[in-house]
Design brief:
By secondary structure, the protein is an all-alpha fold. The chain is built from nine helices and no strands. The termini are far apart.
Length: 217
């Protein structure tokens, strides 16, 4: 489906009071439920409002159309994944590269695939709601968090940390995309997670060894 450049994707307003936050949470959760049950073509603001237990008027206070709903649901999902990565990076500061890599992979994949069906459904509508832009924004946040973590490793990395972080991010994105496009992601999850941990640990260990060689010269 071609993206109409005139479609408004941004929310009309942000919730402030606790009641408003609860309404928005219900609306976004209902959006995912309707998307899973009906598919993106049959998803309507009326169906979402009914599922959320709010009036259509309440829904329109925040989201002007179904594209805005889908984009907001996608943003919330990616923000949760990014938040998990940021927390893991804060907790791993000062630890070994192996512990950092393991925590990074585990936190990302578990957050990404916590609700596998919802992740797959949101992935399928990403191109309709300017998902690439959202992914880039979240990628910047993840890169900053990973760089901050790597800068504190017990074995200093004498490399471009932004590049190292980007390589790790690309590996994470590649494996998560494979899971999302798989016909049975749950069956592959454990194997691919362990392989990705092995890959990330080996990559950071190689960076450490190269830094030690450079320091000895």
């Amino acid at each position: 489906m071609a993206q109409n450049s005139q479609v408004v994707l941004e929310p009309r307003k942000s919730p402030v009071q606790a009641r408003s936050v609860a309404s928005v949470d219900a609306i976004l959760e209902a959006t995912i439920q309707v998307l899973l049950r009906e598919g993106k073509e049959r998803l309507t603001t009326t169906r979402v409002a009914l599922r959320a237990g709010v009036s259509v008027g309440t829904l329109y206070q925040y989201y002007p159309n179904k594209s805005a709903l889908l984009q907001a649901a996608l943003k919330r999902h990616l923000d949760e994944v990014t938040g998990a990565v940021e927390r893991a990076c804060r907790e791993q500061k000062g630890k070994t590269p192996a512990l950092m890599a393991t925590a990074l992979v585990t936190s990302f994949l578990e957050a990404k695939m916590r609700n596998g069906e919802a992740s797959v459904a949101l992935y399928s509508v990403s191109s309709d709601v300017d998902g690439a832009k959202i992914v880039r924004q979240m990628g910047v946040r993840c890169n900053k968090a990973i760089v901050g973590m790597l800068a504190t490793t017990r074995e200093p990395l004498m490399r471009d940390l932004q590049l190292v972080a980007s390589m790790l991010q690309d590996a994470l994105a590649g494996v998560s995309r494979r899971l999302l496009e798989s016909s049975a992601p749950a069956k592959q999850f454990d194997t691919l997670q362990q392989e990705l941990i092995f890959f990330a640990c080996a990559y950071l260990e190689a960076c450490v060894q190269e830094s030690l060689v450079q320091a000895a010269r």
